[in-house]
Amino acid sequence: MLFAVGIAVLCGFFASKINFEEDINQIIPKNEKSDLTAKILKQLNFSDKIIVIIENKSKEDNFQLSETADTFLQKIEPLQKYIGSVQGKVNDNEISETFDFVNQNLPLFLDENDYKEIGRKLNKDSISKQVESNYISLASPTSLVTKEFIKKDPLGITFLGIKKLNALNISKDFKLENSYIVTKDGKNLLLFIDPKNKSNDTKHNEIFVNQLNEIKDNLNKQFKGKTEISYFGSPVIAVANAQQIKKDIQNTVMISMTVLLILLMYYFRNLFTPIIVFLPTVFSVLLALLILYFIKDKISAISLSVGAILIGITIDYALHILTHYKHNNNIEELYKEITQPIILSSATTSVSFLCLVFVRSEALKDLGLFAAITVILSSVTALIIVPQLYKPKTEKQANTNFIDKIGSYPYEKNKPLIIGCSVIIIACLFGFRHVGFNEDIGDLNYIPKDLKISEAKLQKLSDITSKSIYTISYGNSAEEALTKNSALSGFLEKEKQEGKILSYNSLGKVVLSEKDQQKKIKEWDEFWTKEKKSNIISELIKNGNEYGFNANAFNQFNDI
Questions:
Q1: What's the start-to-end Cα distance of the chain, in Å?
Q2: Cβ atoms within 10 Å, residue 478
Q3: What pairing do the DSSP bridges indicate for beta strands 227-233 and 174-177?
């Protein structure tokens, strides 16, 4: 027994070292295509963002949501070790950098319709009006912002290219206000937090999300009656799932153990015997975890959620031995009669669980291994431990109770019961085909009430949380991937025009393959003939002189 205790302590030590994975996605079956998709998705983080919703609760018409947003950004500064970046606030430098980027790569952003628009801008009347408009802008208070834009592009051609960046917009339902992204009605402000850890890294994200929730609660108290902050996103949902999984495992195991202990104490009329019943189960679980520690670097925590069921299965072997030993106080006869049935029973159950090893779900594989090892070990340990610790009462001491009476009742001789069971079986043969199955894989996730409310808010604001399909173009080189993505972008545009999809966001019209880039540059060179260049420069200088512009004012535009 001392040896067994030593083994149990050793098993418990190694079991505590196991790395449990709390990713709910581990239960989803995988195949060659999904493995490839998962490999590519690991290189991206677009689905790992946390959306922060700041909702206007003030009755004042001129209330600014930016005040709460500024305070929130200040509060999360100590959490920079968890945050990669925060999007949603646009500063002047970013606007200038975007303009310069498009301006320097303008040919790549233009299409046939844009060249028609440029052609109209090159008319003498259009140039005259544009120069006048530029002068008015420079004379206004906004000249600090517009001055550099006008010097680089007095005709505003660059803005035709900037429009192409609309393809990257999260939604058409938002606008910029006080440098923040807000809904068109100005009632909601959105920020996007990009965590440094992936959404399935719940171990580190749990600390981050808990601190975010604390900041949210404090700010909601501070701005009560003015604004309300809420969150939504896959990292938050993943943490909620992980917490719920652990809570469910603890609750189910505790409930099952409590009920079984009460039942066993009533049946055996003492406290020590139920403890003996549970010892093989505890020992086999720890030993199973020890074995998994050496054959797997980490196991899914979801596999342990079957713990309550395993308790019910594994204590059966100890109960068989106890009840048999109770009614037949002969250790030699006990092993002769009970060993083969128990080993055979546990082996068949174990093999049934082992079949899960052949499925494509990592969580179910872990469950199969854990359950199979636990079941077979519990039967062996029950045969070793129970007879050594349990001493049955003599016949004079033995008492019968209602459980004994239920077990000794001759059910096979009860004709009404047999007829009733037969009728039920026949009814099941006709009715099983009408059973429906939930095919929504989204129901695998546990979403708390507050997150459901946040999701409902986002659905009202836009289609940002609508059911989406993420398409990925890949190849053996960047050029091959870009070529495929351009073709895909054309297909999506066609689908949108035909009303088959609500909207799409794509880099296909912005990031081009080398072949498409050369084609765009050729179109640019063919458009700007020597005569056209000469005429446009002379017209700009001529009209500029009327408003006091010197001859060098448009040199940067000449370079374009």
A1: 88
A2: 11
A3: unpaired
